[in-house]
């Protein structure tokens, strides 16, 4: 709902990867010193997440935030949502904020919505694994279910380059996106398999026009080589599939030959966690 981030959210489906985002937060000088993979900058989501938690602790000092991101940024892989949640958890531990996991996750959801970087990523990260968000909203108000996947299966991602989400969405009808998204989430809820997640993602991207030329080309090449199940990371110039680990190298090679950065990761079946207080 516009204007209220804690009444906003999105239906959808996706996967939590073992490769992702790690955030370290320390007490610093005045202001927020922010690094992403060693590069200093003003990374809005992490900064806002730390400040939100600092307000709860009545802390007015500075922070040093160091983010390590092991997957491509700007490819629809949910790195902003992961950054928000990890920063909130780390800052709360640093400042001794005694809130429950769900309450902290709601702060991360609020930050992501207000930053305009996503609507439903945190819902999936709080659950982990392969999941479908059946009812949108912040953690605690949403409804999320899991999709069973063979433990031998891995995720292969082909990232062709960063794109602006706002530009991609301007080329499509938001009403049509919402209508088709709801239909495919409902279909996935009725027949909940990883193959359907991939197939519905592909159909959704093609029918809404969100599939980029690179993603369309990847669909065609993978199908021709016997890998018909694939989807698009929303909203990104990124294709992904889930398949037995023994087939991962073949798919990664195909994607690299098309010019993509290929990343292979196992699915993380645990929610985002605090590594060290």
TrEMBL record:
<comment type="function">
    <text>Phosphorylates (R)-pantoate to form (R)-4-phosphopantoate in the CoA biosynthesis pathway.</text>
</comment>
<keyword id="KW-0808">Transferase</keyword>
<dbReference type="InterPro" id="IPR014721">
    <property type="entry name" value="Ribsml_uS5_D2-typ_fold_subgr"/>
</dbReference>
<dbReference type="InterPro" id="IPR020568">
    <property type="entry name" value="Ribosomal_Su5_D2-typ_SF"/>
</dbReference>
<keyword id="KW-0418">Kinase</keyword>
<keyword id="KW-0067">ATP-binding</keyword>
<protein>
    <recommendedName>
        <fullName>Pantoate kinase</fullName>
        <ecNumber>2.7.1.169</ecNumber>
    </recommendedName>
</protein>
<dbReference type="InterPro" id="IPR012043">
    <property type="entry name" value="PoK"/>
</dbReference>
<feature type="domain" description="GHMP kinase N-terminal">
    <location>
        <begin position="49"/>
        <end position="116"/>
    </location>
</feature>
<dbReference type="Pfam" id="PF00288">
    <property type="entry name" value="GHMP_kinases_N"/>
</dbReference>
<dbReference type="GO" id="GO:0005524">
    <property type="term" value="F:ATP binding"/>
</dbReference>
<keyword id="KW-0173">Coenzyme A biosynthesis</keyword>
<keyword id="KW-0547">Nucleotide-binding</keyword>
<dbReference type="GO" id="GO:0015937">
    <property type="term" value="P:coenzyme A biosynthetic process"/>
</dbReference>
<comment type="pathway">
    <text>Cofactor biosynthesis; coenzyme A biosynthesis.</text>
</comment>
<comment type="similarity">
    <text>Belongs to the GHMP kinase family. PoK subfamily.</text>
</comment>
<dbReference type="InterPro" id="IPR006204">
    <property type="entry name" value="GHMP_kinase_N_dom"/>
</dbReference>
<dbReference type="GO" id="GO:0016301">
    <property type="term" value="F:kinase activity"/>
</dbReference>
């Amino acid at each position: 709902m516009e204007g209220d981030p804690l009444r906003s959210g999105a239906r959808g489906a996706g996967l939590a990867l073992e490769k992702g985002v790690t955030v370290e937060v320390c007490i610093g000088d005045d202001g927020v010193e922010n690094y992403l993979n060693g590069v200093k900058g003003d990374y809005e989501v992490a900064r806002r997440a730390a400040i939100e938690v600092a307000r709860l602790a009545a802390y007015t000092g500075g922070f040093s935030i160091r983010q390590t991101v092991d997957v491509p940024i700007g490819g629809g892989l949910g790195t902003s949502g992961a950054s928000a949640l990890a920063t909130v958890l780390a800052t709360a531990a640093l400042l001794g904020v005694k809130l429950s996991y769900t309450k902290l996750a709601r702060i991360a959801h609020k930050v992501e919505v207000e930053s305009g970087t996503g609507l439903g990523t945190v819902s999936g990260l709080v659950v982990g694994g392969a999941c479908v968000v059946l009812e949108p909203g912040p953690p605690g108000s949403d409804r999320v279910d899991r999709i069973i996947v063979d433990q031998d299966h891995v995720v292969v991602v082909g990232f062709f380059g960063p794109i602006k989400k706002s530009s991609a969405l301007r080329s499509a009808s938001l009403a049509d996106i919402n209508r088709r998204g709801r239909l495919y989430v409902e279909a996935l809820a009725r027949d909940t398999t990883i193959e359907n997640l991939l197939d519905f993602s592909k159909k959704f991207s093609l029918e809404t026009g969100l599939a980029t030329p690179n993603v369309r080309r990847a669909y065609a090449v993978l199908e021709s080589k016997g890998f018909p199940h694939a989807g698009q990371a929303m909203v990104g110039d990124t294709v992904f599939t889930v398949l037995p680990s023994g087939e991962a190298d073949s798919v990664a090679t195909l994607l690299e030959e098309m010019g993509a950065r290929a990343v292979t990761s196992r699915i993380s079946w645990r929610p985002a966690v605090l590594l060290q207080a």
